Input
Amino acid sequence: MTSVKDFRVDEPATAEELGRGSFVFTDDYSVFDWGKMPDQIPDKGASLCTMGAFNFQLLEANEVPTHYEGVRIDGRDEVLDLDEALSMDHTPREMVISLTQVPDLPFVDGAYDYDAYHDAAGENFLVPLEIVFRNRVPVGSSLRTRTDPENHGLDLETWPDEPVDLETPVVEFSTKYEEQDRYLDREAADRIAGTASVDRLEAVALAVNDILNGQARQADLVHEDGKIECLYHDGEIHVADVVGTFDENRFSYDGQQVSKEVIRQYHKRTQPEWVDAVGAAKAAATEDGIADWKSLCDAAPEPLDEHVIQVARDLYCAGTNAYVGDDVFDAPSLPAAVDAAADL
Output
């Protein structure tokens, strides 16, 4: 289901009822939609699970419905809340979740058949969209390549070489299950959402964004942008997948990135030939109506130096400690981890 976490099904969902399963977070990482990269980042899986569970509990406390049920430790069957797990000196890697239906999305004659997806899904399904929210436009944001500053009420002719804060958050809709993510206008997003309300999806995304903003401020972090995924069941929208981690969202500290964006930008600087090859393969696949763009890519990523892997590990762990307000991981202070990342 995803390249950096494993997916387990305990009770399958039906047309009417939610099932139960879990995400098992690995130390793998992915950039530029490549899938599993040659290296692993130690403790990354535990970091994402801890931060994701913390945020789901925060959303539930603020009456935002989610698919989160708890965490498991050491392969035990017992489902715990995050505080219980951490009090036992365990950083969880398994998150227990409610499951919905995820039908196949056919690719026929160069196009994805969303009508077939919804015919199979009925009224209990994962909405095949990512709902993206942006509070800031950092360097590296795709918004810079797709829009101009004036589209967002900014008195700028071109995007500057530094991050730009937005007066009000921007919400966008992107595809979820296509081989290449693509941004959609509201009409296309509404069609792909099926019976789920695009207006309601946007409202939930803004509520989640506001809650994450507040938590980030307590840790002296800036929450720049992120996304949610949602399931639709019995007429209600629940936040699904994982929320507000350093893989799903961009955070910064004192102007420096605290997110997967650090590794993305490092690859751009040190492996530009591979990054360019990925871009060319995606463009060729779009032009030729081919779903599997990787089959057209004539290059592969190289492993990272051990020093870079250690810096990335410390950034994930120090950032998680700061965000949840607890020394969950043995890691440097956040300022020290950010300084090391800035030197890459």
Observations:
- The longest helix spans residues 198-218.
